[in-house]
Amino acid sequence: METCGRIRISDPNPRWVMETMPLARVRGDMVLLPNGNILIINGASSGTAGWDLGRNPVLTPLIYRPNNPIGLRFEAQNLSSIPRMYHSTMILLRDGRILVSGSNPHAYYNFTGVDFPTALTMETFSPDYLDRRLVRVHPVIVSPASHYQIGYGQQLVINFKAQGRINRGLITVTIVAPPFTTHSFSMNQRLLVLTNSTGISASVTSLGGSNYQVRVMTPGSNTLAPPGYTFYLWFIEKFLVKAFGSRSSREKGFNYICN
Question: What pTM did the predictor assign?
Answer without folding.
Answer: 0.86
